[in-house]
Amino acid sequence: EAQLVVALAGNPNSGKTTVFNNLTGSRQHVGNWPGVTVEKKEGQFVFEGKVIRVIDLPGTYSLGAYSEDEAVARDYILFERPDVVINVVDATNLERNLYLTTHLLEMGANVVVALNMFDELKTREVDIDVPRLSKLLGMPVVPTVATRNKGMKELVAQALQAAKDGVKEPLKINYGKEMETELAAMEQEISSNPGLPDNLSPRWLTVKLLEGDEGVLKWLNKYPGLERLLARRDEIVNQLEGIIGEDIESFVADRRYGFIGGLAREVVTRRKTAEERLS
Ligand code: GDP
Ligand code: K
Ligand code: MG
């Protein structure tokens, strides 16, 4: 039986390493990712008789490949295809942390969220409706307090279940009528290319292509059959930017934050302070 691989992804200081240490104990070693100076931490543990390999990815806020850290995390998820990505999210900074989550989901990764720092919510008088968050994101969300080893068993159980279930439909953020029309046409052209690896989400590739993501442009240039589409890309982008009135990259980021803002409004409630309760 093949070993299961679980990768930990999250913003810096979300508690990734604490989760990693909880899971792997002393069975870990540190090396470097090939070609870069970024530290690579690997470990393993046994759960219900199965050996699970755990990779602690570099902490990142996004997966746009603007930094070595982002490139390492993104390439690992895209090309090494871990069975599950545990996305460690700092619950006290939900909206900022979910930005990375939307990237993971759009890429088509098999994601389970560890909603970490859950203990801090109480002090801050904030509540998060976890079942609702899980439902809206379409994936398991497990509250955790990594520093007290809380929620780890449930997290592992959910990760293994997700590995068994496989990836669900990748998250679709609605980018509005004009861009969606263009996306649909380009996605069709991209997904009909027989040479492309079938584990890449064509929609994600298309969004990246429109955003002008250098890494994705470089990959796509390797595949014969996409020359016509790539040659038309700049023209399509110019036209679209004329209609939406801003550059596509900012537009896409705005829509992502819009989606996250909507989520947060539905799941986060701030309890009234003592003073507010008086009035
Ligand atoms: P990383 O940068 O994502 O690897 O985060 P670390 O695991 O290094 O944790 C960052 C800081 O947050 C450390 O000081 C941890 O002790 C602390 N921390 C991690 N998890 C929790 C948690 O669930 N609750 C609280 N209150 N602190 C945590
Ligand atoms: K740290
Ligand atoms: Mg760390």
Automatic annotation (TrEMBL):
It is found in: Cell inner membrane; Cell membrane. GTP binds at residues 10-17, 35-39, 56-59, 116-119, 145-147. Residues 3-165 form the FeoB-type G domain. Mg(2+) binds at N21, T24, G25. Belongs to the TRAFAC class TrmE-Era-EngA-EngB-Septin-like GTPase superfamily. FeoB GTPase (TC 9.A.8) family. Probable transporter of a GTP-driven Fe(2+) uptake system. This is Ferrous iron transport protein B. It comes from Syntrophaceticus schinkii. The lineage of its organism: Bacteria, Bacillati, Bacillota, Clostridia, Thermoanaerobacterales. The chain holds residues 3 to 281 of 677 of the full protein.
